[in-house]
Amino acid sequence: MSTTPPPDPARVTRVTCVGAGVIGGGWVAHFLARGYDVTAWDPAPDAAGKLRRLVDAAWPALTQLGLAPGASRDRLTVAETLEEACADAQFVQESAPEKLELKRELLAQLDAATPAGVVIASSTSGYPMTDMQTEAADPSRLLVGHPFNPPYLIPLVEVVGGERTDRSAVEWASRFYEVAGKSVITMERELPGFIANRLQEALWREALHMVANGEATVKEIDDSITEGPGLRWAFMGPCLTFALAGGEGGMGHMLDHFGPSLKSPWTRLEAPELDTALRDAMVAGCEEAAAGRSIADLVAERDQGVIDVLRATGRLPKGAAE
Amino acid sequence: MSTTPPPDPARVTRVTCVGAGVIGGGWVAHFLARGYDVTAWDPAPDAAGKLRRLVDAAWPALTQLGLAPGASRDRLTVAETLEEACADAQFVQESAPEKLELKRELLAQLDAATPAGVVIASSTSGYPMTDMQTEAADPSRLLVGHPFNPPYLIPLVEVVGGERTDRSAVEWASRFYEVAGKSVITMERELPGFIANRLQEALWREALHMVANGEATVKEIDDSITEGPGLRWAFMGPCLTFALAGGEGGMGHMLDHFGPSLKSPWTRLEAPELDTALRDAMVAGCEEAAAGRSIADLVAERDQGVIDVLRATGRLPKGAAE
Questions:
Q1: How far is residue B110's CA from residue B36's CA, in Å, rounded to a whole number?
Q2: Which residue intervals define the domain 3-hydroxyacyl-CoA dehydrogenase NAD binding in the entry (chains A, B) (predicted)?
Q3: A244 touches chain B (CB under 8 A)
Q4: Measured between alpha carbons, how far is B229 from A195 in angstroms, rounded to an integer?
Q5: Do B221 and A57 make contact, defined as CB atoms within 8 angstroms?
């Protein structure tokens, strides 16, 4: 474990992004828009041009959202070497291709090239850091900071360390991402696919099965989400929205009512046993997530949210007034 | 099969809603707001009061969206009996509890009480109509019209007949729902859970497993969706959004790049074989869904959509200007 204390998360001014594809380039755009100096490196020969095009494409959206004071595309430097990119980094975000061996070696190289105590985060979509930090001299500062595409617009970052990651590094990264404008879920333990990816991967695999079996087309799958549950999920998660299907009885009534359907062949994924412990955990979890809001409050909130989302995306119901 | 032709879907003025819980009551609110006369029936003793409270709770949202000319809560009649409710129906929407035997008997009763030729739709979340239409004298006009909660705001209706449903009834219902302001997916064949429910059920079961195993809390699950993929799914489905993860190479590159991850233990749902046929089907399906829009067009559309949704739901990134 390193002995140099990392900089205060709120005082970071320089970020290094390694890997400049869709995700890495998206991180570059995000950090530039939030007013950081960004140094990027990518081994591809045409990486700099592609990266600048990606940042240019994102910039109108970021300008519309509002740039941080001093934010500028001119504050991007594309380094010639990994060592140059990391030499004075205050934080490193790695977004290399999803290949375990490559990640292992790259993280070891980054660790060797980055000042002691500086946190190095991987954008990996699903590899546990425990499996990736095996080659690094100082694995204590290596962790996962998993974003969603595009990282410059989707707030979520899932932060989780590996077995050899220092708890202080996890806390530092969570705080840094928050300062940098992200919405952070700090996970207490490693879970393949983290949280959001497990959920969307289950949906995605069911979709792939349906296409593979001629049960639905790609367009039907996409439409069924954007015209259906996707409208709710933009602002209220699947648990709270399902709680509202239970009427005034909430999640408890919903589980009691639809419990038997849980064994229906509605997806290829087997359901867990809906025993008392799970039922009670879901009910208690929804109460916690509701944070004092009554079912009526949540219904009103959901209704307003759906209307706002429909209006914002130009989809008020046919015949409705503007 | 009945011989009386059903009314022109565009000239329907009277709708009957049987079952007045969360879904049935939501249908009542929707049809009232779209300017229909609505007759409702529910066997519960306090059904009328509950129904009127539900409609009252929904009305501000519906008023905000814009009511159809002549729309009024006064056009709701709560019938004393099922027979009275159906006597002059031009369309019947059944939203009884999810119990197969109950649905079977109720649909037979509705068929007996409703004028010949009038279409009867079930809101069932997942029973195939083939299994529900067994007791009815005229099963040809029975079909599924599956809504999402709340039916007065979420546009999607999945329409599908059973083995004994007449094709013309399916076409009539699809057209009727469109006239009534819904977004319709007409399915060519029965599939347990239809389309959207299969997708959201896969996600939901993974969520239940995670809570059951202490892998994530209800709040983390909900936050991971609303701060992550849920923002995109409000206006762009999972297939097209994943295509954008492939950069300029789109879905093809995405599948080639993330293909190996498909076998990762990111969810409890086994992935299908990503063979050439499935790969090509996904690529072709995304091209169809994109309908001529380039990857750059889709990226710009996604970016604008996420910004609009964030702004509409009061969640511009921290530090961003309004």
A1: 20
A2: 15-187
A3: yes
A4: 11
A5: no
A49 annotated as a binding-site residue: no
Q: Residue A224 class from Cβ within 10 Å (0-12 exposed, 13-18 middle, 19+ buried)?
A: buried
* Amino acid at residue number B18: V
Closest listed residue to residue A205, CA positions, set B149, B242, B290: B242
Q: Which helix (H) or strand (E) holds A15?
A: strand A14-18
Report d(CA B294, CA B281) in Å as an integer. 18
Neighbour count for residue A25 (Cβ, 10 Å): 28
Query: Half-sphere exposure of A52 toward its Cβ, with a 13 Å CA cutoff?
Result: 9
Q: What b/e readout covers B48-83, taking b as 16+ CB neighbours within 10 angstroms?
A: bebbbebbebbbebbebbebbeebebebbebbeebe
Chain A residue numbers touching B64 (CB-CB < 8 A): 307
Contact (Cβ atoms closer than 8 angstroms) between residue B205 and residue B198: no
Domains and CATH numbers, chain B: 9-186 (3.40.50.720), 228-312 (no CATH)
Give dist(CA A202, CA A198) in Å, integer. Answer: 6
Point out which residues pair with B159 in neighbouring strands. Answer: B145, B186
> A282, A258 in Cβ contact below 8 A?
no
Per-residue pLDDT of chain B (322 residues; tens, 9 = 90+): 444 667 899 999 999 999 999 999 999 999 999 999 999 999 998 999 999 999 999 999 999 889 999 999 999 999 999 999 999 999 999 999 989 999 999 999 999 999 999 999 999 988 999 999 999 999 999 999 999 999 999 999 999 999 999 999 999 999 999 999 999 999 999 999 999 999 999 999 999 999 999 999 999 999 999 999 999 999 999 999 999 988 888 999 999 887 777 888 899 999 999 999 999 999 999 999 999 999 999 999 999 999 999 999 888 765 554 4
Give the mutation candidate from B224, B248, B273, B299 for the A interface (greatest A CB count, under 10 A).
Answer: B224
Amino acid present at A9: P
Q: Give the torsion sign (CA, A264, A266, A270, A275).
A: negative
